[in-house]
Amino acid sequence: MELFGYNISRKVAEKEKTKKISPIPKNDDVGGITVSTTATGGYFGQYVDMEGTTSDSEHDLILKYREAARQPECDSAVSDIVDAAIASADKSAPVELSMDELDMPNNIKKEILEEFNKVLELYKFNMRSSDIFRDWYVDGRCYFHIIIDEANPKRGILELRPIEPLSLQKVKEVKKTTDPKTKVEYEEIVNEYYIYSEKFHQKHATNHKIGGVKIAKDAIIFSNSGITDPTRKRIVSHLHKAIKLVNQLRMMEDSLVVYRVSRAPERRIFYIDVGNLPKNKAEEYIQNVVSKYRNKLVYDASTGEITDDRKHMSMLEDFYLPRREGGRGTEIDTLAGGENLGQIEDVVFFQKKLYRALNVPLGRLEEEASYAFGRATEVSRDEVKFQRFVDRLRKKFSSIFMDALRTQLILKGIIKKVEWPEIAESINIDFIEDNYFSELKEYEIMKERLEMASSFQDLVGKYYSVKWLRANILRQSDEDIDRMNKEIEEEIKSGILKAPDEDDM
Q1: Distance (Å, rounded) from C-alpha 22 to C-alpha 172?
Q2: Sorting pLDDT into bands at 50, 70 and 90, what band is 204?
Q3: What CA–CA distance (Å, rounded) separates 265 from 279?
Q4: Whose CA is closest to 84, among 388, 399, 444?
Q5: Distance of alpha carbon 348 from alpha carbon 283, whole angstroms
Q6: Which residues share a beta bridge with 36?
Q7: What is the three-class DSSP state of 220?
Q8: 175 inside domain
Q9: Domain that holds residue 303
Q10: Which of 114, 280, 317, 436 has the highest Cβ tally under 10 A?
Q11: Please, are residues 31 and 229 in contact by the beta-carbon 8 Å criterion?
């Protein structure tokens, strides 16, 4: 099939019959390399020069994101986000397909659900859900290669193979045309594809072009963060705004260690009696004493270790001063160490600022902070904002399921390509919430509703009706009210319940 195969060229019949002319380029798919072609089309051959600034900068940004995610505070914040987005489910998948709004026969819905479960198996989402989401969040993008049986495409997707983002680059061939009437130049995308090469992320030590394999756009599942740089030409990660803070926090922590090491111990001043030695001889004598007893410790910021090549046990950064004949002779004095070594307000400031940049509540930074179970009144405003942020991440991440499901349904002939846009609007990807905390929340809400209903009991029959109480306080729908009434009648007839008094009705 040309739709999901590896052929880069398109049939004329597959192109849109109506050309949409606009001087404004499309901005729904940023990133990659844009190549201008002539009106008759361009040919790139087997090799594409990937040494442009766009490619390098995107790759460098991904490496910066991964390095930033290794910082302990940043890693902890990212773990909180991943744990909130992907709830742990015992044997079931963390996501489900909701088709309540889909107006199609039940047999078609059943087939769609079966193929969705097949997609989850291809992703191995039950086991790798947290890893996939974390990689997507840190890198700001993720790629999967759709592998099919070209001889029999109706078998569907055989494998969804993850692709290293550093090894893939998107290329867009555009044709620039000038409108003869308005003289306005506009761009038209004539071809889009990906180039895969393991050499993209390597530093280009030579000037030769890098060869790669062309892969059709429809053969790649691509999901990004939806965030772009100020120029709107590159996709960036959610960690982009935290890179500066991570570097500042690392620098502050390293300087704090250096300060503690240098200021914590007591320093000593050695007044060395040099007698009547000439100046040069006196300086040489002092240097011999210093080289014999002095030991300078060095702090390695990359490893966090204190290194000492001399391996001598001696004082740290002592002072050696000469004293002439007639003085008090050789003397050793002591300088007190630093007294404000416990002040880390600056480090805490950058830690809090980092958490704010990542939209993680500051309460999660406190080690001794307790968690309130269930009570809605105890949920902080930051936690509510954090949950909304996680919901936005889930919605953006769901594109990997929708794209794979679309391909699977079209390949197997369950739906047609033109039917997918309408189907996509009627189905949703639901992420499973944490069962324990969800139950606690529901129980607490139900408890509050019952307590409020009890307080309204004396007003029922005077100002409020029973139906209004059940609909507005207990939040029961008409279907729930009818079902409850029938169940109550059946239980009264069977003797399970006692018939209520008229005053209680």
Answers
A1: 17
A2: very low
A3: 32
A4: 388
A5: 46
A6: 174
A7: strand
A8: yes
A9: 265-335
A10: 317
A11: no
**Dihedral (Cα; 310, 313, 315, 320), 10-degree rounding:** -60
Helix (H) or strand (E) holding 392: helix 381-397
Same domain, 87 and 221: yes
Higher pLDDT, 368 or 215: 215
Instruction: Indicate whether 31 and 151 sit together in one domain.
Output: yes
> pLDDT higher for 377 or 216?
216
Contact 301, 256 (CB under 8 A): no
Is the residue at 357 inside a domain?
A: no
The amino acid present at 236, given as its one-letter code, is: V
| CA dihedral (179, 185, 187, 190) positive or negative | positive
Whether the CB-CB separation of 185 and 176 falls below 8 Å is answered with yes
Domain termination residue (choose one: 437, 465, 485): 437
What is the reported pTM? 0.71
For tokens 């195969």, what's the residue? 5
Rounded CA separation 317/299 (Å)? 13
Measured CA angle at 305 (ends 300, 307), to 5 deg: 75
The closest of 478, 481, 292, 447 to 374, measured between CA atoms, is 447
Model confidence pLDDT, tens digit, residues 75-100: 999 999 999 899 865 666 789 998 98
Q: Is 320 helix (H, G, I), strand (E, B) or coil?
A: strand
179 token code pair:
């409108």
Q: Assign 3-class secondary structure to 180-203.
A: CCCCCEEEEEEEEEEEECCCCCCC
Looking at the structure, do residues 378 and 331 belong to the same domain, yes or no?
no
Distance of alpha carbon 484 from alpha carbon 481, whole angstroms? 5
Q: Which of 198, 199, 239, 230 is nearest to 64 (CA)?
A: 239
**For the purposes of burial, counting CB atoms within 10 Å of the CB of 119, is it exposed (0-12), middle (13-18) or buried (19 or more)?**
buried
Are 112 and 96 contacting, i.e. CB atoms less than 8 angstroms apart? no
Within-domain flag for 244:
no
Q: What's the pLDDT band for 3 if we cut at 50, 70, 90?
A: very low
pLDDT by residue (tens digit) across 300-352?
Answer: 777 777 666 554 444 455 666 666 666 666 666 666 656 666 778 888 889 89
53 band by pLDDT with thresholds 50, 70 and 90:
very low
450-468: per-residue pLDDT in tens?
888 888 888 888 888 888 8
- Is pLDDT at 115 greater than 90 in this prediction? yes
The Cα 227–Cα 61 span in angstroms is 13
Q: Distance (Å, rounded) from C-alpha 143 to C-alpha 224?
A: 9
Helices (H), ranges, 420-477:
420-426, 435-455, 466-468
| Residue 457: φ, ψ to 5° | -60, -40
Provide the pLDDT for residue 49. 41
Give kind and range of the element (H or E) at residue 159. Answer: strand 157-163
Residue 7: band (very low, low, confident or very high) from pLDDT cuts 50, 70, 90: very low
